[in-house]
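Q: Hi! First time asking for a complex rather than a single chain. Here are the components, and I think there are two in total. Is that enough to go on?
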Amino acid sequence: MNKRPERMARTHELVKAGLARRRAAEVRFRVYGLISIVGGLCFLFTLFGSIVGHAGAAFQQTFVALDVRFDTEILAPDGKWDQEARMAADYGALLKQSLAAAFPGVRERQQKRALSALLSNGAAFELRQMLEARPDLLGKSETVWVPAASDADSYAKGQIDRSVDESERRLSDQQLAWLDKLAAEGRLQKRFNTTFFTAGDSREPELAGIRGAITGSMLTLLVTLLLSLPIGMATAVYLEEFAPRNRWTDIIEVNINNLAAVPSIVFGLLGLAVFINVFGLTRSSPLVGGFVLTLMTLPVIIIAGRSALKAVPPSIREAALGIGASHMQTVFHHVLPLAVPGILTGAIIGMARALGESAPLLMIGMVAFIVDIPSGISEPATVLPVQIYLWADSPERGFVERTSAAILVLLVFLIVMNGTAVYLRKRFERRW
Amino acid sequence: MQKSTLVFLLLLLSALAFHFGRQKSLDSAAGQVRNLHSLPGYYGYYTALWCGLPALMLLFLWLLFETPAIVHLVVASLPPEMASLPADRLSLLINDIRNVVSGQTSASDPVIQAAAKHYRELRETSNLLLTGFAITLSLAGAVFARQRVRSDFRARNRVEKAIMGFLIGSSLVAILTTVGIVLSVLFESIRFFQLVPASEFLFGLDWSPQVAIRSDQVGSSGAFGAIPLFTGTLLIALIAMAVAVPIGLLSAIYLAEYASRRFRAVAKPLLEILAGIPTVVYGFFAALTVAPFVRDLGTSLGLSVSSESALAAGLVMGIMIIPFVCSLSDDFINAVPQSLRDGAYALGATQSETIRKVVIPAALPGIVGGILLGVSRAIGETMIVVMAAGLSANLTFNPLSAVTTVTTQIVTLLVGDQEFDSPKTLAAFALGLVLFVVTLGLNVLALHIVRKYREQYE
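A: Yes, that's all I need. Here is the structure of the assembled complex.
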């Protein structure tokens, strides 16, 4: 008769015995979850930390002060000093002479060459520009700050370890001693690296900049935006508002969803085979790049546009139709304006993705080494992510920090774009 | 006339046509809008469309066919011994002529000089013809449309039809893209399989795509067995998923079930930043930071680790996929009805037991779908492996050695000079075909699973 309470007591005991273990399991499970989130965030911070840590140095460039005598005999040996003579003059010799004056002890050829290696190849160009602006300097002397070579720059930034054996260093003991002497005389100075923002690509790290890549990116994005926004909006409007429910529209829908997940490199193959080989458009041009990125971003814009249109309540449509607007008028005068913030948010996110994309652009030749800053959409260009890829492949030490700096610039652009999208969504989002 | 000027002019003409069409409609209705079938603006749009569209279409077609036509005419006018050169020499010659035309080089050869002059003349004639035709067409269109404008003319219906045409045309772009991808990849692949048998490509164990320039060169006969690439891709994707699935899934569970509202509001966007970082940045991070770290770690443990190990590339790729797995799983966990949880609690289950025994099994199809999408991303990811994985096609499953992947090989084969008849270039398209088919299959499967699951609770 009293079997039931007995059984319950036994169950109680069993539950109680297991309780501690189960509580521990509960805590463990929670901690696993927390650890993985913290782990994920750690990855994020390591990534940012590593890039910011490397990038800092790129925003500074070391300059060397030289007392340059603008020797008439070197610059204008035949007495002529016109535009042409200024273009052709031997500015390298001028630099050598100034260095020899600064370091009178250096006589041997090899040593002289080692000394010249401390200055950037761009130093002579700097002198030329200076004389073109002020031709009257001929025959006079002046202290000129010229950019140091990449290795000297690294040393000035403390990136070269003196304790390493001389043969494994980029600079010899002698060169380091010269640099120390220059530094002691106050002839070494680190300045803000304007070249990085005003120059195109270069083989020399100290002369390389991202302006060409940024211009290329802007042109490519412009083409992408001008094509993908109207086409994407039109597709979204058609599918959401007009399309009859039949097999064809089903095919289009499935198609768009699948395109969104096709690897980006496949779009590159398409661009290469169709736009370049069949239509014969210029390789490496922002035009082709824009076409390829348009095809890539279209699904993003269409999907965002459709959900924005879907969010507009049917009562708006019914009201417009009720007072006699045509279907088209209803959509374009009433529904679309209400969906624009959502569509724009999707478009900005799509553009941000296009800005960071590089794999398909490698396929269509935007990976070429291009020094000039592109001035039109049919000229060869490269884009910022591809520039990053190119620099990351370069062996020179100076390119590591420049790669990081370029990444930083790219991330700033992306953060601004995504921030705008979030702001737009917050500001104009309407709950019906 | 420059083409951009021409476009501008056509737009200007259209704007004028808009004005005239609108005015005409008002005139025909004696200034009373209610006598008109449509609003006056529609008559304007109608006229403007007739004015601008045909001319712009002509311009577009002209741009498409102008250069080939001119080149054809120039080649026809060349002396016969030059015009009959083999195709590749001829294209070099045409390039020379074009360079002279654009003023980049000056020609010493009188034949080329003459050809360049001819080219320039033809271009000018073509421009003149285009300008004439386009403007005539545009004016004719405007006049025709303006004539049709009457008070009972159904302008709105016509304009809406044109807009509808644009809408439908736009939605066909997506289809055309897919068709374009399939055709371009398929055609080149077929050409490849004519040179290299498909069985050798799919089942061969040796990959060395360098084809000899001279027949007597050693060791460069070219072998196109893609198995090492497939195993390499799988290995890296496997490592990536081994990182992404546990971290992503556990994060999603914590965010969905345990985290406070405030913690969630901070942690979720932060994790999603990982998804917005360009892959080239991950590639740089992998090559600069992770790969040396993995190598040093391995060396200190007494293992020999390649500096381009699959492990480093896979780890970083896993980090990239975390937010993807996390946000998809999060959605599906949230979609599990609360009643299921309440039922489990009522039976005395703890929260973790409820999650493990009730919530996760209920959300499993969706999570599996999400993971499959993640795998498809890992397989198609390019920049990380190009920058951090190697180029040597080793047939191995050792994560510490260097392997290469399908995407890496596509990039290596296609960057730089290409000849479109060498198996080396065509091999890239065959690899692209495999990549496209595999990822498409995974996506279709994943979407199918996800859709089926969604229907369950809705």
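A: The first strand of chain A starts at residue 60 and ends at 69. Let me know if you'd like any chain examined more closely.
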